[in-house]
């Protein structure tokens, strides 16, 4: 009820333990706080908070228009609804190294378990679009160094994302990943890998955990969780999947309403009222209210 009873420190420790466990960690993307609760109920290891989803929810493209305040607020909303660790998209850190440092501390305050920071130029764009530009190695390394220096909880995970694969090729990506790991990154997110062999090459290049992004309609094929684990991937995200599923259902429902004048035909595909109430724990809130507002006033002499 209300907030998770697992502390941010405990979630961060769980995140690190999962990355070191030898079992791939599955982090579906939560497009609302309520969807984070459902991710937990379905048995996944963690929750991902995508920058693209945050922008799209606001009716914006993923081109660096969201603010740090908006990202931290959504991160806090998601983290409070689940006992699972949350990894959040920190884009480029919202500026220079000092801005990166502030980003890390505000996201720590939000209760998330970790953040990934990327090496694109500002303003950034979706990692699976053409025309990306990346910063030089020194700038990318300084972002990660600033993040590592700024964190107050040593268990808060600093993950470095590199988008250089689509710009300069796999060799540049593995070299960039090595430099970012040497700068203190706890894990590497190599964006837009072309195939399993490229994930395998990234695994061989660094000693820290690596992440795979299984976003639909992108530059990577949709490999299974087992295929990714077999080539040494430690964590996989499905960043926009739930938003796409939900928006597809909404569009189909609106089409039906426009054509039929009613949503009767859509009822079988809807979440029921009872299921929604179960997910938001109406019973728990009702029990709390009973305990607070039920008083015995028979002996009240005041």
TrEMBL record:
Q: Which domain of life is it from?
A: Bacteria
The answer to whether the entry has keyword Lyase is yes
What is the protein name given in its UniProt record?
A: Methylisocitrate lyase
Identify which cofactors the protein needs according to its UniProt entry.
Answer: Mg(2+)
Annotated catalysed reactions = (2S,3R)-3-hydroxybutane-1,2,3-tricarboxylate = pyruvate + succinate
- Entry EC number(s): 4.1.3.30
The protein's role, per its UniProt record: Catalyzes the thermodynamically favored C-C bond cleavage of (2R,3S)-2-methylisocitrate to yield pyruvate and succinate.
Task: Please state what class of enzyme this protein is.
Answer: lyase
Origin organism lineage:
Bacteria, Bacillati, Actinomycetota, Actinomycetes, Micrococcales
Among Pfam families, the record links this protein to:
PEP_mutase (PF13714)
Q: Does the keyword Isomerase apply?
A: no
| Pathway, per record | Organic acid metabolism; propanoate degradation
What is the similarity comment for this entry? Answer: Belongs to the isocitrate lyase/PEP mutase superfamily. Methylisocitrate lyase family.
| InterPro entries the UniProt entry points to | ICL/PEPM (IPR039556), Isocitrate_lyase_ph_CS (IPR018523), PrpB (IPR012695), Pyrv/PenolPyrv_kinase-like_dom (IPR015813), Pyrv_kinase-like_dom_sf (IPR040442)
Which keywords does the record carry?
Lyase, Magnesium, Metal-binding
Gene Ontology molecular function: lyase activity
């Amino acid at each position: 009820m209300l907030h998770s009873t697992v502390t941010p420190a405990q979630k961060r420790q769980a995140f690190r333990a999962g990355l070191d466990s030898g079992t791939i960690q599955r982090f579906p993307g939560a497009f609302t706080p309520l969807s984070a609760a459902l991710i937990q109920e379905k048995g996944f290891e963690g929750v991902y908070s995508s920058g693209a989803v945050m922008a799209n929810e606001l009716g914006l493209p993923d081109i660096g228009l969201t603010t740090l305040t908006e990202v931290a607020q959504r991160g806090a909303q998601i983290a409070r609804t689940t006992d699972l660790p949350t990894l959040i998209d920190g884009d480029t850190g919202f500026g220079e190294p000092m801005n990166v440092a502030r980003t890390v501390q505000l996201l720590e305050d939000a209760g998330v378990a970790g953040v990934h920071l990327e090496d694109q130029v500002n303003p950034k764009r979706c990692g699976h679009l053409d025309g990306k530009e990346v910063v030089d190695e020194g700038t990318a390394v300084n972002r990660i160094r600033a993040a590592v220096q700024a964190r107050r909880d040593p268990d808060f995970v600093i993950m470095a994302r590199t988008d250089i694969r689509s710009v300069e090729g796999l060799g540049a990506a593995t070299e960039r990943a090595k430099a970012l790991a040497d700068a203190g990154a706890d894990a590497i997110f190599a964006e837009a890998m072309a195939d399993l062999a490229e994930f395998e090459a990234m695994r061989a290049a660094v000693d820290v955990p690596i992440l795979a992004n299984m976003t639909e309609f992108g530059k990577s094929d949709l490999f299974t969780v087992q295929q990714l684990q077999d080539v040494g991937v430690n964590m996989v995200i499905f960043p926009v999947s739930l938003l796409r599923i939900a928006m597809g259902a909404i569009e189909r429902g609106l089409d039906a309403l426009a054509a039929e004048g009613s949503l009767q035909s859509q009822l079988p595909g809807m979440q029921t009222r009872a299921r929604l109430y179960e997910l938001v724990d109406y019973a728990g809130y009702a029990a709390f209210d009973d305990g607070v507002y039920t008083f015995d006033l028979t002996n009240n002499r005041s």
